[in-house]
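user: Kindly work through both lines:
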Amino acid sequence: MPGVKSIYAISIVLSLLATGLYAGLCFGIAFNPGVASMGPSAYVSYWQAVNRDYGRFVPPLFVVGMLASSAVVVLSFRKDPVVLIAGVLAAVAMLAGIILTVTTLVPLNVLADSWVGSIPDSWSAHRDSWRRFHLIRTVVATAGFAAAAVVPVAQLK
């Protein structure tokens, strides 16, 4: 049975992996220069493909990230305040990303996935809304990864 120190170390590693993967995925989509020049049909096909792939991958990533970040917070309670605050910020950023995804981005994804055979004239307004909220999610995810990275760094002595 692993001790508290081992569980803490594993939680830090999993938090870093989950928040880093999440931030990287968000960043890759947000700053993909080729996407901006796509026409309606190509963009909607791209959007639907990303929804399929990420719809399978991101929910478990959210679960691991939230559980690991929460464990880091609990196990950092009696550590240096910088470590605790960084852990809390990482967990809050993960939670904020989950909330933003579920309440705003997923409904837009479901809408885009329904465009089979015909794309509505309003597609670009939905795309622009999705990209705006995704940019916010990217900033939040990147901040969460940065905070998660502070946890082990702040403990180096």
Observations:
- Residues 4-154 form one domain.
